[in-house]
Design goal:
Elements lengths: L2 H5 L3 H6 L1 E4 L5 E4 L7 H11 L3 H6 L4 H15 L1 E5 L13 H10 L1 H12 L6 H6 L4
Antiparallel strand pairs: 1-2, 2-3
Helix pairs in contact: 3-5, 5-6
Length: about 130
């Protein structure tokens, strides 16, 4: 297997997303954070631009960074969800605002989604076919 075969991704999958299933009927449609999903890169750059000096100086508040990252993910990476429940166990409708708040409320799931969205392996057509997901 060549390096091209090992490391190539499917740009349409990167943009259209793949389902990340947490069981219990709760799943998220995740686009790649980067790669062919330039919307994510552009949106994150736009959101952080006013804070570039603070970021360079190391004075940018970590909490603010998490909020901006959650905003960028809610707008460009988490494309939809199905069966996701709120604290009371009620199914929530997907919206950018609800997604952003969900990612802020549950930082560990945000870490997991970021790791999934950042891994090129999840967006390779061959791997998706082998797993029976395409």
């Amino acid at each position: 297997m060549s390096l091209y075969e090992k490391f190539s991704t499917d740009e349409s999958i990167e943009k259209e997303g793949v389902w990340l299933d947490y069981g219990e009927g709760e799943k998220f449609l995740i686009a790649r954070a980067g790669g062919a999903n330039m919307k994510f890169v552009q949106r994150l750059q736009h959101l952080t631009k006013p804070y570039n000096r603070q970021i360079q100086m190391g004075t940018f508040a970590e909490e603010q960074g998490r909020e901006l990252a959650a905003q960028a993910f809610a707008e460009t990476v988490v494309l939809d969800w199905d069966g996701v429940k709120n604290r009371e166990g009620e199914v929530m409708n997907f919206s950018v605002a609800a997604c952003k708040q969900f990612l802020i409320d549950l930082p560990e799931i945000f870490v997991d989604i970021r790791e999934f969205a950042s891994s090129y392996v999840n967006f390779q057509k061959e791997a998706r076919v082998e797993e029976g997901k395409d």
